[in-house]
Amino acid sequence: MRRAALLRGVNLGGRTLLMTDLKAIAEGLGFVRVETLLASGNVIFDAKQSGPEIEALLEAALERHGLKTDVMVRDLAEIRAVIAANPFADAALDHPSHVLVTFHRDPFPSDRIARLAEVHDGPERLHAVGRELYTDFLGKQQMRDSKLLQGMSKAKFPKVATARNWNTVTKFATLLEP
């Protein structure tokens, strides 16, 4: 089955990983038709293992390579469901690079958005569906100036997660096609 693996925090804050190395690591695990997307830790491949098995295999291989990070895996049906569930379709058309989907390993805790409102009063729109959290930053300036990450930390948002902008999410759907 074709899958996308999304690595958390790659090529940010000194945590570097060449995409050629990521591709070689995935191929070393026996994955085939391996390709990377952007330099932010996205790899697409065919594998027989389940999503959780792939996450564990990649995390262990990356740690052997010197990078301890979390990995979230999604297949085409899951990515299509993420796209279909987007509550901010208007924003995705207007400013797709400022609409983020945060992929979590487990379902997003239903009380966290309400808890965020207690510690953060920014204008961003947030909505959770299953394991994904959608965030509309309302444009480039707002995203740059946002204090949302600090609020998420105070509200104890799950740490095993990684975000991708809407443009990248839709590219996953294309690359996951058989």
Automatic annotation (TrEMBL):
It comes from the Bacteria. It holds the Pfam family DUF1697. InterPro entries: DUF1697. This is DUF1697 domain-containing protein. The lineage of its organism: Bacteria, Pseudomonadati, Pseudomonadota, Alphaproteobacteria, Sphingomonadales.
